[in-house]
Amino acid sequence: MNKFKFILFMAVFVLVLAACSNTDSEESATEEDAATDENTTEEEASEDASSSTVEIEDAHGTVEVPVNPETVVALDNRTFETLEDWGVELAAAPQDLIPADISYSSDESIENIGNHREPNLEAIAAVNPDLVIVGQRFAGYYEDIKEIVPEAAVIDLNIDVSEEAETPGENFENGFKNITTQLGQIFDKSDEAEALITEFEDSITAAQEAYDGESTVMSVIVSGGSINFSAPGNGRVWGPMYEIFDWQPALEVEESSTDHQGDEVSVEAIAETNPDWLFVLDRDAAVSSSGEESIPAQDVIADSPALQNTTAVSEDNIVYAPEDTYTNESIQTYIELFNNLAEALAE
């Protein structure tokens, strides 16, 4: 009888072991299947993202652009800081025009296109890009670039704040929002783009609320030791802001331009308007001329006898644009500038 019990016990034990083994095998197989499914899903998602496209409305129409393109060429100074902040790698860029504090300027892996005056457009073709971002200084090369890289998506993100623009301020504000939104769609950074736009809108509101609506404004560009006029409406950098902030211009002239060094108006004529505020762009701070030492805008203003008795200078009502503004007209630059204006005008 004891022998029978022992045999029965061993049989039950073997059955239990077999059941446990099957359960373990089933669980292991289930885990392996789940891991395989998860990896497959991730791979499929990655493939979907790399193969998907987005339609972008640029200055010429609708362009189908790949999402997260592998090989990117950027030519627009308004985009460099944003792309750098988002970790976008560039294959080619006009490094001669990129501020030193943006890493693209010294990245040896990037093909240097030079500058907009004598660009090496063949460098664009050499990298076989999936996307070329045109705009601002390079807008005039749009058709040439499309011709040399016919397989690439070429988008022109230029903002029209030219002399012919009826609403330069509105174009400026909406242009930056559109650029940022579109770059967010292309590089899968829509949340980051939305955050930047919110900052931009907040900085505009702050500067609008800080301005008293009555004080007169004079905007100038300091270049080569000279003080030149940046006209309301279409003057470089400052022009569109007169519409955005409803500034009262201290001076208006006929046949003003968007010239990068401003319009030639004598310092005496500027001083005679006795502006309450002086807003200054230091062009030389961003562009060194052939190794020559430039004179800081602050020194040029301080050494101008004609300006010393104006309200703006005597009361130190002077706001300088960030030093790299001339070559870094990114949305981040204008957020900084507008916040600086708000702080100064509120004092």
Short structural description:
By secondary structure, the chain is an alpha/beta fold. Helix content is 43%, strand content 14%. The strands form 4 sheets. Strands 8, 9, 10, 11 and 12 form a 5-stranded mixed beta sheet that branches.
Features:
alpha/beta; three-stranded parallel beta sheet; 12 helices
Low-confidence stretches: 11-17, 257-262
Look at the structure and give the mean pLDDT: 86
Helix content: 40-55%
User: Beta fraction of the residues?
Assistant: 5-15%
Overall strand count: 12
Radius of gyration: 30 Å
Helix and strand element order: HEEEHEEHEHEHHEEHEHEHHHEH
Give the overall shape, derived from the CA principal axes. Answer: globular
For the sheet with most strands, the description reads: 5 strands, mixed
**Would you tell me the structural class of the helices and strands?**
alpha/beta
| Individual helix count | 12
Q: Alpha-carbon distance between the termini?
A: 105 Å
